[in-house]
Write a structure and sequence with these properties.
single chain; 479 residues; alpha/beta; Rossmann fold; four-stranded antiparallel β-sheet; 15 helices
Length: 479
């Protein structure tokens, strides 16, 4: 199956052709650990997770790297101004920048677990790669594409003619944006910092090249250092949110390709911003949700994950609490269909004669086709629920139940939002008082007291549960 992905650089769908056949290298811009991770962050992170899962589903060997930015990310990304985000958080809380970084890095990892993210093979911190950043900066200085002013080091954009190719920004736009905050040290307003000197900055290092001043790295250089360290000079896929396109990814391309002399990334992929109740997420509007906020409202990590991955990554996604309720219902539908197959497979329900062969083949083919066309999760979910409908029709044979469960396991493996295979009997989840009523009903039926048995059945139904009489005995299921 050919996998086509939208390349932000060429602005077109391209066939994925790994640099090394059968193996894919992926780099994903990770969190800046200065605050609690919010649901907008995780739309991008979950898109990367689904991408990796599908590539592995298709038999490719993936090496995935996601960075942790714990220094150098400035508060005004678009003009590379303001102060370091961790320094700003430090002033607000009274904690050191190091304490801030470790606190929110731990919270991010907890959110990954809650949202069932398949952990990257490498998740390095920027602060552990100062030496590697210094090697690149030194090389750019030696090549004359970077220059030093009062200890600060800048990349000279004029020396890289392709600058702007990813974002589509032309010279006039770049100059107009840079003029918002004029820096007289720069040769050109578009030039960006590789190394900064600030005596008040808490996180500082001796410059890892001869003659350099003590300071800290710029945001962009960290990803070039970590990506090339783990994956080499050229990688297959680089992802991030659409807000990373400029300046971050534009600067990554310039400094990395000027350093290596080779094309850095084959396919750039970017997720659209998340909207909340139809507008941009904002604390001032009261529609800002961290992952923890959502989980505290009683929703599960699976339900939040479903709500964030259900629409293709390049399409607008409007997040609402109603959408979380819909996610809960959708997951329940899938799990109920899986449970029905489990009961047939395990002999708790009588098997039928339906083989599901055509439905299995159709579901697998439709799911693969949708995901192969630029991760069209919406179409893939349509295939999932058509298969749910097929499983709920008729009476599956034991062989059909086994085959159907394999298909559902595949859907879970790729999308990660349905959960593990359910147990055959959910009676144990029912309240104790209902289990007592079920036992009384069983005794009434044995005594042929049909009126009492019916009355007990009605009381159980009024509580939102139904009785299922099966060869293995009566059980309760949520209605």
């Amino acid at each position: 199956m050919v996998i086509r992905l939208y390349n932000s650089l060429s602005r077109s769908l391209e066939e994925l052709r790994p640099l090394r056949p059968g193996k894919v290298t992926m780099y994903h811009c990770g969190p800046t650990v200065y605050s609690s991770p919010h649901i907008g962050n995780f739309r991008s992170f979950l898109f990367a997770d689904v991408l990796r899962r599908f590539l592995e589903d298709q038999g490719l060997v993936v090496t995935q790297v996601m960075n942790v930015t714990d220094v150098g990310h400035l508060t005004l990304d678009d003009i590379e101004g303001g102060e370091d985000k961790l320094e700003a958080a430090s002033k607000q809380t009274g904690k050191t920048a190091w304490e801030i970084a470790r606190q929110y890095e731990a919270e991010f990892h907890d959110c990954q677990r809650q949202l069932h993210v398949r952990l990257p093979h490498h998740m390095p911190r920027a602060t552990d790669f100062i030496h590697q950043m210094g090697e690149i900066i030194d090389d750019l200085l030696q090549k004359g594409v970077a220059y030093e002013r009062n200890g600060n080091v800048y990349f000279e954009v004029a020396k890289f003619p392709a600058y702007g190719q990813l974002s589509g920004k032309v010279l006039d736009e770049l100059e107009a944006g840079a003029r918002v905050a004029v820096n007289e040290e720069k040769k050109d307003p578009r030039d960006f910092a590789l190394w900064k000197v600030d005596s008040k900055h808490q996180m500082q290092w001796d410059a890892p090249w001869a003659g350099g001043a003590r300071g800290f790295p710029g945001w962009h250089i960290e990803c070039s250092a970590m990506a090339t360290h783990y994956l080499g000079d050229q990688i297959d896929i680089h992802t991030g949110g659409e807000d990373n396109i400029f300046p971050h990814h534009e600067c990554e391309i310039a400094q990395t390709e000027a350093h290596t002399g080779r094309r850095f990334v084959s396919i750039w992929m970017h997720a659209r911003h998340l909207l909340v109740d139809g507008t941009k997420m904002s604390k001032s509007l009261g529609n800002f949700f961290t992952v923890a906020d959502v989980l505290r409202q009683g929703y599960s990590g699976l339900e939040l994950r479903y709500a964030l991955v259900r629409v293709q990554y390049r399409q607008s996604l409007n997040f609402t609490l109603k959408g979380l309720d819909e996610a809960r219902s959708a997951i329940a539908r899938v799990q109920q269909a899986r449970q029905r197959l489990v009961r047939v497979r395990d002999g708790l329900d009588l098997p039928g004669v339906d083989d599901l062969d055509a439905a299995v083949q159709q579901a697998n083919a439709a799911f693969t086709a949708a995901m192969s066309e630029d991760l069209n999760v919406s179409e893939a979910l349509a295939a999932v629920f058509e298969f749910v409908n097929q499983c709920n029709r008729g009476a599956p044979s034991i062989a059909a139940a086994k085959a159907g469960l394999v298909v559902f396991a595949r859907f879970e493996d790729v999308l990660g939002c349905f959960g593990s295979e359910p147990k055959a009997d959910t009676t144990a989840d029912a309240p104790p008082e209902l289990l007592a009523l079920l036992a009384q009903r069983t005794a009434a039926k044995k005594a042929k007291d049909w009126a009492a048995a019916d009355a007990l059945r009605d009381r159980i139904a009024a509580a939102g549960w139904r009785i299922v009489d099966a060869p293995g005995g009566a059980r309760l299921e949520k209605a």
